[in-house]
Structures are given as structure tokens and as C-alpha cells.
Amino acid sequence: MVRFIHVARAWPDREVLVDVSLCVDSGDALVISGPGAAGKSTLVRLLLGLDTPTHGWIVVDDLVLGGSTPEVLAAHRRRIGCIAQHPLLVGDLTVEQNVALALDVSGAPTRPAQSAANEALERAGIDALRGRRAGTLSAVERRWVAVARALARPEASLLLADEPTADLDARDARRLGALLAEERAAGKTIVVTSREPSLAGLGAHRLALLDAGRITLETATQGRVRSLAGRIP
Amino acid sequence: MTVASATWRRSRGTLLLAFAVALASGVLVTSGATVIARARFQGAAPLQSHYYVVSRGPLAEATRGGLTAHPEASIVAEYGIDDLLGETAVLRTGGETLRVLEVRMARREAVGAAADVAPSQGRDAAAEVATLQSLEGVVDVIALAPPTAPVPQTGPGVVGGGLIGVGCLLFASGLVLTASMAVRESRDELAVRYLLGAEPGSLWRPLGNQLGMFVLAGTLGAVLATWLGASLVLGRGEPSVATAGPLLSPASRAVLLAAACAFVVGAVASAVLAARRAVLRITDAPVELIGLLAACLLCAGSPVQASEAVPPSDFQLLRGVGRELAACNRNRIDAERTLAATEIAAVHAHARQNAIRFRLANLQRDESVRIVENWRDTCAALEMRRAELRLLHGASLFPGPPIAPRRPPVTGGMAIAWGEAGLPGRPRAFRNGVGLRVRPGEPVRATAAGNVVYAGDLAGAGKVVVVSHGRRTFSVYGRVAETLVVRGMQVEAGEPVADGGDDPAVIYFSVRQRGKPVDPVVWLADDPSLAGEG
Questions:
Q1: Three-state DSSP state, B479
Q2: What is the pLDDT of residues B465-498, one digit of tens each?
Q3: Longest CA span, chain A
Q4: Probe site for chain A from B11, B195, B210 (most A CB atoms < 10 A)
Q5: Crossing angle for the helix pair B250-282 and B286-309, to the nearest 10 degrees
Q6: Cβ atoms of residues B9 and B210 within 8 Å
Q7: Residue B383, beta-bridge partner list
Q8: pTM for the model
Q9: B236 by DSSP, 3-state: which?
Q10: Which of A196-205, B135-144, B228-237, B513-522 has the lowest average pLDDT?
């Protein structure tokens, strides 16, 4: 369960988020859509605990972010599978090791971590890249490694994807949507930010439109999204 | 493993840099300290005299130790005796020959009393010789040259200090540089771990790993630099950084000590962390791993205990004594050769009227005589021991009941004795055995009880009977007219095994023990039943 309660984030010269209130229940999927510089990535940073709001609260499950100790925040991040806009990988480690790193920081022993990493690589369809060094990957491949790393997290209850389809073609985007739908079916909460208002393959989800730091629209079902899609600027 | 290889791949450039910087700064500091040490040393030594201290080879270490401990003595060079008695190339060097240490003695009380040098010289020299004679292992002391006045040296302190300063500066900047490079290189992994929610306490691990490796590389470089410097300088027997320690100020010493401690602590800590990490990666249960290691250690230790518990067998003892005896004999022969070479060297030296060489050669000859006698005594003692062991444990060397009684196979005399076969006029076919005359109609009897293992024709030997007596001993009867036994038959001592016939006047008789032929007559005489009766 994720709740944004009147969240605002301001820099000295401008306001990035203004009074954002959102609610995503457990096992729910929410797509936050909007144009560039609308504040989507700031929302993701706030949710990851990398930034704190200037006003309001963010509640994830039973934890109120902001003012938490580093240990609590680290535990919070371990419960999030994150597919970042620009996936951060360790260039000198192989793809497999990069994915296994997610389990390593969770304290998983090596062999189960490796088998879990391999499983995630197969699910993401990149098991052929297993032994490649991450520094030699293309942008699309890096994206899929990030997806595999998010899938590999054992204890994640929240899956967070920031512009996951930015450099994917339609077929790959559909495949990613289907993967997220599988995770959702397994009981995970899905939060996606995207310029596109819908993510093919994800199935029925809720949509929030964000523009200049404000929520302009929040829907309940996929049917409404379709009908609204044409009106999005 | 994977993390280590990734860390190595990522940071090999920095590792090499750390190594090179430590090496360079180590060389600079060592050289600087050496320059200072030499300057102080030369400034402090006003008057010197040279001696050859002749020491017994095995005790040379003790003599060297005594000289090092002596405040005024310093070893200039060290020679084997044959370095000085150069014309005798056959002279063997080694632990047992004499060593000659060239020693320089400093005489501090002579400063400022140049006019008084001559009278005090004789007294000083006698005292010095007496001092050197009293050291352990010294055979003789030979005065080489009269005292020489030192050459004053000025102003190398600035150079040495400068070198040390530059070395320290280089080292400090290298530390800062490698640390910053380590941070930069592990930045990615730190960021990823942070984003993935690594415990704050474990975040520094990759950085720690890397810094640990750099510290190890740096330590290696510094140690190598010091070793290089020390071996280059000490090899010439001149004062070096080793003697600079006491000359440094307390503050400098404290700084050097702190740096060394930091190195050691860093290296140990990084090794411990790496080991801990490896353990955690190998197994989730370190306790089990420790148990496994302990079990391995116990297993490894048990054969040692077993070998201690079981005493060596008689055969092993005898073999050991045999080997020792062989080694002793080699050493004895070596020593005798050395003695001969020394005699020659002494004669040469005498002929050339070279007093020092003659004296050295005589000393070496005395030493060689002592060594030769030593080895002769040892060999004799070992021979005794071997004979004793053979007597005492003969039974256990050849398992099985003793072979007795033993009888000659025929009553005729010896036609071809042991070792005669193949000599002019003697047929080669009787080698490894003897030829015995057979009286007409006399059968060939088994020499002792045993089991027939062969009876029949054998190429080149005619009809042959072979009887096994146990204890890996066989008797062979060849060139007989007719065999009277078949394979597998048990025969008693004196039981006929073959017919000598009329025609072959001489039969072949051989005894083989443990695969080797032995003199049958000696074997027959060695009858245990006879010994018992005796």
C-alpha cells in the first residue's frame, strides 16, 4: 500500500510537486503519466526515500518515510524492486553478478542468489547476456538487466518502474507489461511512471495524470483510461 | 573469487600505481637513511685496523654474531678459505672448511693523539687480537695492515634528509591519490548498493576491499624496496639503513614506527575482512565451516601421530643406518681430498714465501685433519651399529622360519669357485654360482628343505632344478643329468632332487637371496643350526 498525503516538494527557485495525494492499494497497479518535467521522477525519488518532501507525508505499508533512520530507509528500499529511468549498473561486474547484487544486499547466500538471478534473467529473456560485463551493454540491454534485478528481489512488495518503456519498441514494451502483470498477480503493488498513459500488457490499472507538479486526473479502471487517452495533451 | 577478480579488473591500474609509488618512496627513504648512516659512521670512526678472523665453518655464524655484537668491530668482507688460497682449485668449500672474516676495528681513543699513535699501537693491537681470539669458533686472528687514518666526510646529511623528505612526500601523495582513485572506482558499486538498500554498515565493503588491496600492494612495494636497498648496500658490507635506526631522532623514529604499524594493521585487517567475506560467500554456516576445517586439521594431524606411535621396522632401521653410512663415507672421502688439497696449498705457500697464506693453509690442514678423523670415527661407529642391527634383527629382515639345516648338494669338491666364472679358462655359464664336482652315480641333494618351483630344461643351462626355501631364498641346481622331482614337490634337506650321472662331471649350484646371487659356500657356512650348536 502506498499513500501520498498532500505531498509537496519545492526547490528554492521553483515548486516541483504541489499538493499531490495518491493512493495505491496492495496488489494494485498505478500508472503516473505526464509530460516531461512534470515531477514524475521526483515522485519516484521520494518513494525510494532518496529525497524528502517539503510538506506532507508518504506512507508505504506501515512506514512513514521522512525522518527515518538510514537503517530503516535501507530496509524500505530492499522491499522495492526498482526499474530506474537510467539503470545504474556496476560496469565491471557481469550481468549475472549485477542481478545477484540485489540479493547480496538482502543478505542472501551466494548459491541461492545465483539461481534466483538466473531465474530472473530467464524471465526477462536475457539469459544469453549472463556472462557479459555490464559496461558493454546497450541502453535496451541495460534496461532489461534492471528489469531482471527488480524481478529477482525476494522480499519486494512494491515494484517501481520509472519510464520503463522509454527506449523499448512496442513488442518489448508489451512483454514488459506482461511481466509486470505477472508480478501484480503474485501480489505485488505496481507503480509505473510513463509519458504514455497506458502500458500495454499490464492489464487493468489506474491512471494518474501529473502536470506541472499537480495531479490533474485520477481514474479507477482501464476503460476510462482508453476513453481519456485522446484528451491528454 | 568473482568479487576479487572484478576488483582486480577494475583497479589493476591503481594497484600498480600504489605498488610503484610505495616502491619508489621506499627506495628514496632507504637511500636517504643509508646516506645519513654512512656519513655518521664515517664521521664516528677515527682510526681503524684490519684483521683476518679465521673461524671454523660450522661456527662461523656464532663468530659473525659475536663480531656484530662487538661495538668496535665491523665485518668488511667474508671469504671461504679457498678464496684466499686461490691456486688450489680442487679445495672444496662448504660448512666444514674454514671461513675467513675480514674485520675492521675502530679505535676511538686515538683521536687527537696522532703523535702518540705509534707507542699505543702495539698495545692496542694485542688487546684487539686477544678480544677477537676470545670469540666463539675463532681458530686464529691474523693482523693485516697497520691502522689507517679515516677520511673525513662532510655535508651528506642534507642529501640524505632531502631524499627521505621526497620519499615521504611521494608516499603521502601516493596514499591520497590511490585512496581517491579507490573511491572513484568503487563509486558505481556504492551507488548501486545504496539504491538497492544495502545496510549502511555494509556499504563501505567494496571500498574497504579495494583499499585493502591497495595497502597490500603498497606494503609489498615498500618491503621490496627496503629489501632491494638493504641487499644492494649490505652486500658491500657498508653501513646502511640498518645502522641508521639509532642515529635518527626520537620523533623520526616514532613517525617511522607509526607508519609501519599502520601498514601492518591495514594489511592484517584487510586480510581478515577478505577471509571473512570469503567464508560468508562459501557457506551460510561459518560454524560448520570451522568444524570442517578442524576435522581436516585433525585428519591431517592423525598420520603424524600414527607414525610416531608405530616404531620403525628393523629393515627401516637398517636401511637408515646404511644410508647414513654411505653419506658418512662420502663426507669422509671429501674431507680426505680436502686435506690433500690443503697440504698442496701449504707447500705452494711455503715455496712462495707467503707468510699469511702459509699460515692459513696450515690452519686449514689442521682443521681438515680433525674433520677427517671425525668422519672416520663416525663411519666406524655406524659400521658397528649396522653389524649389530644385522645380528639382532636378521630374522625379521627375512620373514619366515630360519633355513636350517643346510647341506652341500654333492660331496665332490669345488670345480669353479664363486666369482671365477668368466675368467680366462672358466666358462661364463657358471656365473652367479659355483661349479661342484659330482662323483659318479652320486645324486644331487636338496641343500635345505623347500618347495620345488622349477624342474626341467632351461636354455643354456641344461636340466635345472630350482628349490624355494622361503625367506625369498632359492637354490638352483643346473647341468644335471636327470631331474628326480617335479614342480610343486616338497623336499627335505638332503633329499635327492637330480641325478648327477656319469657324464657331467661338474654341476652348477647357485643360491639367490632376495633376488641377488650370494656365495653358496658362505651361505652354507651361515647355517643357523650350526650357530645354535656352537
A1: strand
A2: 999 988 888 999 988 888 888 888 889 888 899 9
A3: 51
A4: B195
A5: 100
A6: no
A7: none
A8: 0.46
A9: coil
A10: B228-237
Phi, psi of A84 (to 5 degrees): -80, 165
Cβ contact B199–A80 (<8 Å): no
- B118-168 pLDDT per residue, tens: 444 455 677 888 888 888 888 888 877 555 544 545 456 777 788 888 888
B361/B347 Cα distance (integer angstroms): 9
The set of cell numbers assigned to A124 is 526477462
Q: What is the CATH number of domain A2-79+157-226?
A: 3.40.50.300
Distance of alpha carbon B281 from alpha carbon B300, whole angstroms: 25
Which positions 150-189 of B are in contact with A (Cβ < 8 Å)? 188-189
Of B364, B341, B362, B338, which is closest to residue B350 (Cα–Cα)?
Answer: B362
Instruction: For the sheet with B138-148, list strands across it.
Output: B73-80, B98-106, B48-56, B138-148
Among candidates B9, B197, B283 on the partner chain, residue whose Cβ is nearest the Cβ of A105: B197
User: How far is the C-alpha of B521 from the C-alpha of B436, rounded, in Å?
Assistant: 11
Mention every residue, 6+ apart, whose C-beta is less than 8 A from residue B53.
B63, B67, B100, B101, B102, B103, B132, B135, B138, B141
Q: What is the CA A181 to chain-centroid distance, rounded? A: 13
Chain A residues lying within 8 Å of B283, measured CB to CB: 109
Locate the chain A residue with the closest alpha carbon to B280.
A109
DSSP state of A112: H
Domain ranges of chain A: 2-79+157-226
